[in-house]
UniProtKB/TrEMBL annotation:
GO terms for molecular function: ABC-type ferric iron transporter activity; ATP binding; ATP hydrolysis activity. SMART domains: AAA. It comes from Aquamicrobium defluvii. Keywords: ATP-binding, Cell inner membrane, Cell membrane, Ion transport, Iron, Iron transport, Membrane, Nucleotide-binding, Translocase, Transport. Residues 16-248 form the ABC transporter domain. GO terms for biological process: quaternary ammonium group transport. Pfam families: ABC_tran (PF00005). PANTHER family: PUTRESCINE TRANSPORT ATP-BINDING PROTEIN POTG, SPERMIDINE/PUTRESCINE IMPORT ATP-BINDING PROTEIN POTA. InterPro entries: AAA+_ATPase, ABC_SmlMolc_Importer, ABC_transporter-like_ATP-bd, ABC_transporter-like_CS, ABC_transpr_FbpC, Mo/tungstate-bd_C_term_dom, P-loop_NTPase. Belongs to the ABC transporter superfamily. This is Iron(III) transport system ATP-binding protein.
């Protein structure tokens, strides 16, 4: 069975069930098998490096590509499986493409109206008017796509996808074409609109920060497989492996030795649980912000190699006895460092441990 993202036995029936879905793309890459279940009104982010399979999975859900094996069900209806394949236009799934794919010869109102040809004229006009208002595009209804800014085009594409009241909306890198200053505001407005309309959405992104700040649940992919899925805090704070840890955070990697449930390093001893033999080499993963300035007696210390002021934070590189590589610290404190040395402590609750191999 597809993995229930909620982890709650009393959760409602999933909107979308992906059961051992697989697709081979040439000799060098295969997607899946993928198991996933998405609940009503969830906003799920598929995230991973380029080429990991997230956009391919989106196209399989949309029906743009056919799976080689596995099954796909929407609202309990099989869309793909053994001897079954429902064409994209019959799936009740909305799609917002990376380049928005608005029809250039149609006005914004006509673009949104496009998917409502089977609706009565009165109902279609009412639906379009509501979406124009929700997306703050009412004053631009008669304009053509080339007359709109990138953010306005994105909102128009989303309104067009929402118009037929789809069970799920798929969005492929919807914010990547926007300037950095505009991206955050458009993302905020988009998520607010999805929540106001109780829309279930799957958003593809390669940006870790965007995934963590956007999704109710995050699905991390690598080489066509799901590495880990869960809430943003779960993936950030309790990564399943080194790949998941390093995808979402920057770390100091400190070598050590595993003995009786503790990792012994040059920076101290940290409690951990690893599936390795006694005396094995392992790594402590320490986030730069977990390295904190400290004046307490017995604190660790190092000599300052470099300082980089970045506005809200300052990044400091420290040479610490026993470490081959410099230790990176990031702090919001305004430090007055004397004699080129700095004392610090490490929050042990934030230290992660992984096998060295």
């Amino acid at each position: 069975m597809a993995e229930q993202l909620h982890g709650n036995a009393k959760s409602p029936a999933p909107v979308l069930e992906i059961d051992k879905l697989a697709r081979r793309l040439g000799p060098g890459f295969a997607l899946g098998p993928v198991d996933l279940a998405i609940q009503p009104k969830q906003i799920v982010c598929l995230v991973g490096h380029s080429g990991c399979g997230k956009s391919t999975l989106l196209r399989l859900i949309a029906g743009i590509e056919q799976p080689d094996s596995g099954a796909l069900r929407l609202d309990g209806r099989e869309l793909a499986g053994s001897g079954v394949f429902v064409e994209p236009e019959m799936r009740n799934i909305g799609f917002v493409f990376q380049d928005y794919a608005l029809f250039p010869h149609l006005t914004i109102e006509q673009n949104i109206m496009f998917g409502l040809r089977k609706w009565s004229r009165e109902d279609a006009r009412s639906r379009v008017a509501m979406l124009l208002e929700l997306t703050a595009l009412s004053a631009m209804a008669d304009r053509y796509p080339h007359m709109l800014s990138g953010g306005e085009q994105q909102r128009a594409a989303l309104a067009r996808a929402l118009a037929p009241q789809p069970s799920v909306v798929l969005m492929d890198e919807p914010f990547s074409n926007l300037d950095r200053d505009l991206r955050e505001r458009v993302r905020h407005d988009t998520i607010a609109l999805l929540r106001r309309t109780d829309t279930t959405a799957i958003i593809v992104t390669h940006d870790p920060e965007e995934a963590l700040s956007t999704g109710d649940f995050v699905v991390l992919m690598k080489s066509g497989r799901i590495v880990q899925s869960g809430t943003p805090r779960e993936l950030h704070d309790r990564p399943a492996d080194r790949y998941a840890a390093e995808f979402f955070s920057t770390f100091n990697r400190i070598p050590g030795t595993y003995r009786k449930g503790r990792l012994h390093t040059a920076l101290g001893v940290f409690p951990c649980r690893l599936d390795v033999s006694e005396g094995s080499e392992a790594l402590a993963f320490i986030r730069p912000q977990a390295v904190c300035p400290c004046l307490a007696e017995g604190a660790l210390s190092g000599s300052v190699r470099s300082r980089s002021f970045r506005g809200e934070i300052e990044q400091i590189e420290l040479d610490v006895e026993g470490l081959e590589a410099p230790l990176t610290m990031r702090t919001t404190q305004r430090l007055h460092i004397r004699d080129g040395r700095l004392s610090f402590s490490i929050d042990p609750d934030t230290v992660l441990a992984f096998a060295a191999a």
